[in-house]
Amino acid sequence: MERQQMIERQIGTISSDTEIAAVSLTVANLDDQLVFYQKVLGFKLHWRDGNQAGLGTDRREIIHMVEQPDARRYNRVTGLYHFAVLFPDQRELARAIARVLSLQYPNYPTDHILTKTTYLTDPEGNQIELYAESPEDGDWFMNGDIYGARRSDGTPSDGREPLDLEALLSHLQENDSLDAPLPPETRIGHVHLYIGDVDEALDFYHGVLGFDVMGQAKAMRMAFVSAGGYHHHIGLNTWQGQGAPPAPPDALGMRYFSIALPDQTALQSVLERICAAEIHVEHKETGYFLHDPSRNGIMLTAAA
To answer: Domain 3-302 carries which CATH code?
Structure first.
């Protein structure tokens, strides 16, 4: 079944080449977090300056951290549900998961049919998804109250099956080192956010920023938006409660996530819509900063 038949999609105005570029986190112990992201996940430390650091691949920086020793975890607030690290293929995902397994770090391998993935949390409770695309195995759909998946042979799935680790690890080759750094193509594939209201969030992410609405499952209190027809660049849910408040300033977790437009023209188009909606935006050295209606931070940039 064609994707446009399976997904109730509303086309937006944002450039189809838009991507999620990076995630910035408030952490309580920068030393411990750097050990985890380098040893367990294979990130490269790009720089460290006092209480801040940046990590990523040889090609790009995708994680920014700021240490705030008194920060703590809050529940029933908006913010980051998880961020997802996208690997270029299933072989590289297999390498990443094998590395996690070899260190006996708790994780939860899951088959979403359209993607293969595992979930884990860092030492301070930030949830992370590691995934690779597998469209040859099927697709997902989100239509009305229904969210699910359909395998390539037409049989249904809930899209949350246990991952066949033996099949995934068969992609590894004999000389593949588990200690190899992240492949340079690795990037942030999507972020999934706790918000206060789904319709309000869609008015912002679709109506103002211009993302496509890829589907909404009202019974599950969630929706997906993306650019260029991707299954989702941003997930939205009210699982912390309808009308959940923003996290306090001393909260652990996401400070902001970065949206990279392909060029200055595409960025300017989005900024004009933000201005027309009378939403406050702040020009910073690294981009244009604003908040969504649930006070989740967003940094808009133009790709180099």
So the answer is: 3.10.180.10
